[in-house]
Amino acid sequence: MNILVINCGSSSIKAAVINGISGNELLTMKVERIHDKPLVHINGSTIDCIGSGHEAALNFALPLIKDHLNEQTLSGVGHRVVHGGNKFDMPVLINEEVEKVIKEVSVLAPLHNPVNMLGITVARSVFSDLPHIAVFDTSFHQTLPRRALTYAIPKQLRDKYAIRRYGFHGTSHEYVVGLAADYLKADLNALRIITCHLGNGSSVAAVEYGRSVETSMGMTPLEGLVMGTRSGDIDPGALVHLALEEEMTIKDLSQMLNKKSGLTGLSGVGNDMRDIVEKSSKGDDDCRLALQVFTHRLRKYIGAYTAVMGGVDAIVFTGGIGENSAVIRHRSTQRLDYLGAVLNEDKNNDVILSNEAPVQDFAMNHSRVRLLAIKTNEQFAIAQETVRIIEKKNKVNTKPTIPIAVSGRHIHLTQEAVEALFGKGYELTVKAPLSQPKQFACNEQVTIVGPKNKIERVRILGPTRSKNQLEISRTDEFFIGIDAPVRASGKVENSPGIKLIGPKGTYQMKEGVICAWRHIHMTPEDAQLFGVEDKDIVDVEVSNGIRPLTFGNVLVRVSSKYALEMHIDTDEANAAELPRYSEGVLNKTDGSAKLITKKKKH
Ligand code: ADP
After folding, report:
1. Residue 374 region, left (φ>0) first, then alpha (ψ -120 to 50), else beta?
2. CA gap 243, 111 in Å, rounded
3. Which tens digits make up the pLDDT trace of 278-299?
4. Hey, is 106 helix, strand or coil?
5. What is the extent of the structural domain holding 453?
6. How many CB atoms lie within 10 A of CB 67?
7. Is the CB of 322 within 6 Å of ligand 1?
8. 400 part of a folded domain
9. Residue 511 forms part of a structural domain
10. Residue 72's pLDDT is what?
11. 325 CB under 6 A from ligand 1?
12. Residue 320 Cβ contacting ligand 1 at under 6 Å
């Protein structure tokens, strides 16, 4: 799986061909001086470009990649896209619709997205037979809670201009937390990690149990930490003051904040951290201040993000500065003992990261919080994502998916039971239709009374049936003190009974309490498509949950009255931590499951 990764930026175009599985780099290319006389550096040689500007440079440089690849084939192209707005929470296969949406959100990143789009357009024409995937800097942070992404300005303006925190560097933050979890031999879903990506642009993220819950960059990459040339956090009142007193225009302010501030503005010697560290060690006071402001702000964020997550298990340093500067790591992590992070000076000084050893721990052995330096690799991360989407695309084409619904406790009643509980001649009333045709949730509820406890407000599902059936989870069973069997719907023989209380009377169910066997409803046409029959037992793979998993022993129910849907109970859904709209892929098994009441026919 060789993937061409393209990062088409405003001042340079970077591209690489990377194996999306092993990370091996087969080719690198960089185009510089795009607006002057572009130069193409490709695998060590330099070529003058014909024409200037992004479009000419791309049209000249991308076909060169084809020539350099000789016999090696490409499987796809991954594009870095800076801003996905709130439209993309994961990488996507690019088509006309996706291009349209990327263009729509470009208003949020006018310096970046239009050139990213140009890269996509030219690459799609040069490599027209390959799948192209967009990987967004913002998508990892789409899990930010409302309280973290909302700015306290009037709602009408927030809504009209989509002003909110989006966050950037998501590809890097996501990549390094994955490496951190692997290194710590821990489940990412059990870790609270603060990631400090410190490069020319810098940002911090709080990644709680695998999800980004806070990050320092905002609507644009200007907010947060002190960066190479960007100011990071500043009182907006200071800008108003400058506009009034210095008569600075919007353009002047933007130029100052983006290009002349940060380490450049503080140090007076430019944006290279190496120079600043060296000059400060020789007594340069501006450089000393630059280091102090840089690390003070980072420490502030580390403390704040620990508070946001209610604790921290690992703090990660990455990006050119985070990976290479022992001084910055030292200054940012010393005296963090109060939160359980104890720096080991020697290990910190000895950190040398490589592709073979991309993670090093520089905390004391007894430190409860691990301090990690990690080599990021955004290009490889984009290549990996591209492979994942290509594989998913191929999979979806061959295996249709099944929507999964969680069924909470509920009861089906006979007309006799309804009348005993609600009065003579009573008819159930419709509260809401269910996904299965002609089925509905009723307004009516009953109380179920077990030997140990009772549960109130159990929803009745209509219409009435020929047999009473109460479907509860194992947790409910323990609570009310009943041991009910796992059964297919309708199979209530020899199951326990239970007492019901309604507004007009009580009713004793003689049998009918079951724990519903997980099952799939489908039509005969669906069954033909999946190659299964009624009462078959299958496995269903689910890959969009917190972790990939397989539900074994799933009963197939076929009827023209059904709509395609798999039903699991709340215990199973909770244990699996499935997102709200999950889908599964069906796998047939050998039918050896014990629970089946009628044997599989083949
Ligand atoms: P970008 O955000 O452009 O990808 P990088 O992640 O490559 O940037 O980081 C560039 C920054 O890393 C520069 O400020 C550079 O000075 C800094 N850097 C690289 N090596 C060192 C080092 N040994 N000590 C301090 N800073 C370093």
Report:
1. beta
2. 22
3. 999 999 999 999 999 999 999 9
4. helix
5. 394-602
6. 8
7. no
8. yes
9. yes
10. 78
11. yes
12. yes
CB neighbours (10 Å) of residue 595? 12
350 flagged as catalytic: no
Torsion of CA 393, 395, 396, 401, to 10 degrees: -150
For ligand 1, the distance from its centroid to the CA atom of residue 8, given in whole angstroms, is 20
pLDDT at 401: 80
Q: How far does residue 318's CA lie from ligand 1's centre (Å)?
A: 10
Confidence of residue 259 (pLDDT cuts 50, 70, 90): very high
> Looking at the structure, do residues 331 and 423 belong to the same domain, yes or no?
no
Same domain, 122 and 182: no
Predicted confidence band at 403 (pLDDT cuts at 50, 70, 90)?
Answer: confident
Q: What is the pLDDT of residue 396?
A: 44
| 319 CA closest ligand 1 atom index | 6
Q: Under DSSP, is residue 456 helix (H, G, I), strand (E, B) or coil? A: strand
CB atoms within 10 A of CB 203: 29
Structure confidence by residue, pLDDT tens digits, 349-362: 999 999 999 999 99
For ligand 1, the distance from its centroid to the CA atom of residue 279, given in whole angstroms, is 16
What is the position in ligand 1's atom list of the atom closest to the CA of 263?
14
Q: Which positions ≥6 away from 242 have C-beta within 8 Å? A: 248, 253
143 domain residue, yes or no: no
Per the structure, how many domains does the chain have?
3
Q: Which two tokens stand for residue 198?
A: 């410190």
pTM of the model: 0.71
Structure tokens at 385: 């994502």
Asked if residue 541 has its Cβ within 6 Å of ligand 1, the reply is no
Residue 148 lies in a domain: no
Angstrom distance (rounded) from CA 365 to CA 575: 34
CA of 415 to the centre of ligand 1 (A): 75
Whether the CB of 319 sits within 6 Å of ligand 1: yes
199 lines ligand 1 (CB under 6 A): yes
Question: Residue 112 is encoded by which pair of tokens?
Answer: 């970046």
SS3 427: coil
With vertex at residue 193, the alpha carbon angle to CA 190 and CA 196, rounded to the nearest 5 degrees, is 160
Catalytic entry in 36, 129, 137, 590: 137
Per-residue burial over 237-246, b = 16 or more CB atoms within 10 Å of its CB, e = otherwise: eebeeeeeee
